[in-house]
Amino acid sequence: MTTQDHCIIIGAGHGGVQAAASLRQEAYQGRITLISDEPDLPYHRPPLSKGFLKTPTAPVLELRNAEFYRENGIELICGARATAIEPKARTITLADGTRLAYTNLILATGSRARLPEIEGITLAGVLSLRSLADARCLNDALDGPKTVAIIGGGYIGLEIAHTLAGLGHAVIVIEAVPRLLARSVSPPMSDHILARSESAGIVFHVATRIAGLAGSNAKVTHVKLADGRTLPADIVILGTGALPNVELAAGAGLAVNNGIEIDSHMRSSDPAILAIGDCTNFHQFHVGRRLRLECVQNATDQARNAAKTLVGQPRPYRELPWFWSDQGDMKLQTAGLALDADRTMMTGSPEDNAFAIHHFRENKLIAVDTINRPADHMLARRLIGTRAAPSPEDVLAGPQRLKEMMKEAAS
Q1: Are 100 and 8 in contact (CB under 8 A)?
Q2: Given a cut of 70, is residue 1 above it in pLDDT?
Q3: Which CATH number fits domain 329-410: 3.40.30.10, 3.40.50.970, 3.30.390.30, 3.40.50.2000?
Q4: Chain-centroid distance, C-alpha 392
Q5: Does residue 185 sit in helix, strand or coil?
Q6: What is the model's pTM?
Q7: Regarding the domain delimited by 6-112+243-310, which CATH topology (the fold level of the hierarchy) does it fall under?
Q8: What are the sequence ranges of the domains in the chain?
Q9: pLDDT band per the 50, 70, 90 thresholds, residue 404
């Protein structure tokens, strides 16, 4: 590592900004260039589905202020899109034709909304919410009481549903599979979220498929269901998942398989090019398989790991995943991944809207989903994956027993 080195980071979301910050924290001496295809200073994305919709005139929550980039010698280029990577020459090309040379490259290109291939998808009033520009479009469309149909009962769809219902809009959620958040939480948690959301005035159609969208004068007016019914909609919001942005990597000949394939030090198939965040496919230590995660925690933790790799202090990536979602009066928090769980156990009370669901594999705690139980969540994050390995009996013994186990594991 020398002052002649140049690290270019493509993508200025949570991962990209953290990578730039972590490089300086790790005493990286070279140039750092951070490239964003958005015109605004890099910003927090989770509030877009919540606070920003409630108060669109409030200031955008910037990840770092402009002074941070100047003071740390980070060249931030906003409103620029990278169009090509030339690994042999170690250069990238921007949409305006500018070519930049790098010593190392970090791809933090994130993901984009998955658009279903259905009739009417291009009608006005059909929106998604992945960026600040998307949020501004949605706020402009919400210029009075609206009937809003949200396609998809995942995290983003449910967060938007609760926010808009709280603002007085009529909200319908259409989910193709039989329960909400089916890929993320257990059936009892899905049932609770459905019941609580219905009590907030949100109308649900689960196990319901979309046939297409209908409109008048090029503007959406109805959602057509596969069973022949139609639902009115002034606005349709697509919460139908995300696709990793891997086109740059694929064009450069990097290994891609549902994300850019990386090793435990964030290196792609070209060791000079690293990748982090939503766009990556990596071996998840805690579940023992390759997968792709879409969450702020993974993006920022991988960014810190990438920085250590580039300053010659590589360490295997073994961070525990954790997630959160604010939906009305429910704060859903998850620690760990419940893949391959063979037993679940509940503590607390759904009736009180405060409980936890513990997931076990071979009698060891591997994940905990909580509603309005932040202390349980934090304890789970500190325990899961340690040699303490709590059993169902340990969990039933209560928090004091788990805290003792945590101390024993740390000694």
Answers
A1: yes
A2: no
A3: 3.30.390.30
A4: 30
A5: coil
A6: 0.95
A7: FAD/NAD(P)-binding domain (3.50.50)
A8: 6-112+243-310, 115-240, 329-410
A9: confident
